[in-house]
Amino acid sequence: MPLFLFSQERLRNELTTDPDQRLQTNKEVNVEGEKPPITDYLIISQKRDTTHVDTTLTIAKDFKFNYLRRDDFELMPFHNVGQPYNQLGKSFDLELLSPRLGARARHQNYYEINDVMDYYVPTPLSDLYFKTAVNQGQQLEALFTTNLSPQFNFSISYKGVRSAGDYVNTLTSSGNFKFTSNYTSKNNRYRLRLHTVFQDHLNQENGGIEATSLQGFIDDDENFDNRGRIEPNLTDAESILDGRRFYIDHDYEIIGDKDSTTYYSGRVYNKAYYEDKFYEFNQSTADEAFLGEAFISSGLRDKTNLEEGMIEAGVSYDHHILGFYKAGIARHKYNYGYDRVINQAGGVITNRLIGELYQFKAQFEKRIGKFDVTANGGVNVAGDLDGQFLNGQASYDFKDMSVTAGLAISSRAPDFNYLLHQSDYINYNWQNNFNNIEKQELSFKLDSERFLNAEVTFTTIQDHVYFAQSLVLDTNNEITGYNSTPVQTSDDITYLKVKLNKDIKFLKYFGWDNTVMYQNVTQSEDILNVPDFTARTTVYYKNRLFKKALLLQTGITAKYFTEYFMDGYDPVLGEFYSQNTDELGGFPLIDLFVNAKIRQTRIFFKLEHANRIFSSNTDYFSAPRNPYRDFTIRFGLVWNFFL
Exposed, middle or buried, 304 (CB in 10 Å: 0-12/13-18/19+)? Predict the structure, then answer.
């Protein structure tokens, strides 16, 4: 059956930000039996930036072969797949105008709007990802996408994880279902894209290792070699993050013209979404020694719900000389909270935060000389909450490098769980009226395969809001547990991050990839805690074997970060909190790997934390009381089918 590559003329910013990049026409690929080039299988972001499917085997692919399917250099995973990741480096959301639900530690595998991609493929495409889990279980992600016509594409995918874990009460089970569709009329005047996602993430929560067992673990007591014997703080608790979203974005060209040298296009657009999600903490029997006094002794159930919707409408204009302009107004409505009112000694805690926001948003892009300049911003012009942001970037391409500089300012209300929270545990009930968090950030980025890749960000923060550790004491003032409390500091915080990367090739078949990150925080108290230095180095061998039928990649990776006051994890909130009692880190993580590629299949085999075999040191933690995983053998594959 002949294979045809669809032909569609595209305006700038539709499928690519480069007006010179065009899809090939049917005349270019119209030979019976000839397969379209892989560069024609397009992946399109929400900002309409375009990349193509990549089946190569590189060291970067090894770094991304994990639960999140992205490089986790700035993250420290917990021992089990599907559990939270602690942060070794900070990144800030600077384009938000409204609060989020909270439970941010549980959102790292939650598909937000900008995480959803569209596709344009000349033939049906499947992407299969499989990787073993910890102890028992597996993780699998499957994607299928096809163009039913040159104008219409749809994709459907599911990502499922179930992993038992090595420690008591650490099972994880999650599912992410996603459906996308995009359509462009034959005359390219009308464009539509939509998606639907359903997500549920269940984790058993054990609160880390109990104090007596913790000391035995650190001392490498042989009685605890079987991790299932180690006593946790919680044995009957679990948390659930569940959400669903429906999203649509479409526009129509009302004026436009295009020839070989000039073009202009004016469009009206509309986008809208509805999302309903909740975070729930359940426990069969209250553990007052670890989490504090409770209202009830059994059947604890804390459910926090956020229902929100947004509708936006506006216009855009794209001109070959004047640039690209976009402006619109939006109405955002939210309903956050609980089904009860709590009356306690400190006062009445309401059940709901309900409101609406009217917003103005704008975007600008233009090539000025040899500089590519972009800017976007937004402001809450009316409604129950104040908020605004403004981001600007300028980039310049040299012969062997690309340089980008940026400036961003942001002001928005803290996430809802800082403002209002209810629980069956008494210490987790509050209602606050915090100021907006103010952020300003300068950034610089250099991309150069010949020299190095570098990122520098300098961020200042005012009125920072965070969760602080709160100790649970018994009648003898002995520490028996931990929980956390929201705090807003009046002190300014400055944060500097410098990140460098270079992959050095030598002796034809060898490579040496290095990433180093330096961070410095200026603050009056230990609030924003990060390691001073984080480094990862990989030495690898790469060559084609068996008459070039197999591409082999094998080597060793070592990762290290200096000691620091690592954030603790609170299962009731699904959040990390700041603490300054346990200084953790300063241990190496060494992995051995053997990867291979056969046609479009990439196979990965890894010995994780291999140095644990030869070391008696057990002082390796992902958070206070939560150890990192022991030596583990993992394998999996990524398989692309081009039909």
Answer: buried
Rounded CA separation 441/95 (Å) = 12
Contact 292, 472 (CB under 8 A): yes
Contacts of 222 (CB under 8 A, 6+ apart): none
Dump pLDDT digits (tens) for 497-554.
999 999 999 999 999 999 999 999 999 999 999 999 999 999 999 999 999 999 999 9
Give the list of residues 6+ apart from residue 621 with CB closer than 8 angstroms, or none. 566, 584, 627, 628
User: Which of 175, 94, 146 has the alpha carbon at shortest distance from 392?
Assistant: 94
- CA distance linking residue 311 with residue 385, whole number of Å: 17
- Give CA–CA dist 461/438, Å, rounded: 6
* Cα–Cα distance, 48 to 363 (Å, whole number): 13
Alpha carbon 321 to its chain's center: 36
Rounded Cα distance, 521 and 496, in Å: 6
CA distance 268 to 247: 18
Q: Are 469 and 576 in contact (CB under 8 A)?
A: no
- Check pLDDT > 80 for residue 9: no
* Candidate ranges 255-259, 282-286, 339-343; pick with highest mean pLDDT: 282-286
Kind plus residue range of the DSSP H or E element containing 419 = helix 416-419
Average pLDDT over residues 352-371: 96
- Given CA atoms 58, 62, 67, 68 in this order, what sign does their dihedral have? negative
From the list 311, 331, 176, the residue with the least C-alpha distance to 248 is 311
Q: Which among 560, 522, 499 has a CA at the least distance from the CA of 89?
A: 499
Tokens representing 485? 């409390």
Residue 526: how many other CB atoms lie within 10 Å = 13
pLDDT digits 0-9 by tens, 194-204: 999 999 999 99
Which residue stretches of 201-308 are H helix? 211-218, 288-291
Q: Which residues 6+ apart lie within 8 Å of 545 measured at CB?
A: 551, 552
Distance between CA 336 and CA 279 in Å, rounded?
11
The amino acid that residue 121 corresponds to is: V
74 φψ region: left (φ > 0), alpha (ψ -120 to 50), beta (else): alpha
CA torsion sign for 203, 208, 209, 210 is: negative
Residue 33: pLDDT band (50, 70, 90) is low
Cα four-point dihedral sign 57, 130, 501, 45 = positive
3 state DSSP class of 277: strand
In angstroms, the CA 235 to CA 602 distance is 39
User: Residue 540: CA atoms inside 13 Å, Cβ hemisphere, count?
Assistant: 28
